[in-house]
Design a protein that fits this description.
2 strands; mainly alpha; binds zinc ion
């Protein structure tokens, strides 16, 4: 049985969320971003949306973390 393209896509989604969940701390390259463009974590290689990344940074800061550790220059 061969994988259909939707099966393959689903496998990619599952692999990506496993990477995201398994990451100790996401870290992103500080570079200009386009709306809708996914960001790739430099630690785990997982991809997340800008919205999720913003929420992640907000949560990290709420827990007492430094946003600049995730995205250099975030609080500039
Ligand atoms: Zn990560």
């Amino acid at each position: 049985m061969s994988l259909t393209s939707s099966d393959a896509l689903w496998e990619q989604v599952k692999a990506n969320s496993a990477r995201i969940r398994g990451c100790k701390r996401h870290r992103f390259e500080a570079k200009p971003v386009k709306l809708g463009q996914k960001q790739t974590c430099l630690e785990c290689g997982g991809q997340i949306s800008l919205t999720d990344m913003g929420n992640y940074i907000a949560g990290f800061v709420a827990a007492g973390g430094d946003a600049n550790a995730i995205w250099p220059g975030w609080t500039k």
